[in-house]
Amino acid sequence: MSDRNLSRRDVLKGAAAVGGAGLVVAAAGGEVLAASSKLASKNTPQPYTSMFRRPPVLMPSEQGVDEKGPYQKYCLTQKVGRASMVPGLTTEIAGYNGIFPGPTISVQQGTRTEVRIANHLNVQKLNGLPFRTVTHLHGSASLPQYDGYANDWTVAGNCKTYKYPNWQQARTLWYHDHNHLSTAQNVFTGMAAQYHLHDPYEQAQLPQGEYDVPLFVSDMAFKADGSVAFDDSDHAGFMGDTILVNGVPWPKMRVKPRVYRFRMLAAGISRSFRFALSTGEPLYVVGNDAGMTPKVTAVPSYRHGVAERYEILIDFRKYKVGQKIELRNLSNKNNVDFANTGKVMQFEVVADSGAPDPYVIPKTLDLGPQPFTNRGAIEVNKLTPDMAKVRRRVRVERKHGLWTVNGETWEDVEATNFQRVLGNPKPYDVEIWDLVNESGGWFHPLHIHLIDAQIIGRNTTPDGKAHPWEGGGKDVFYLGENETVTALMQFTTGDGNDGGRYMVHCHNLVHEDNDMMIQFAVGDVNMNDPVTSDRSGADDRDEQPSVYAPGFPLGS
Question: Which of 2, 111, 168, 554 has its CA 20 to 30 A from that of 196?
Answer without folding.
Answer: 554
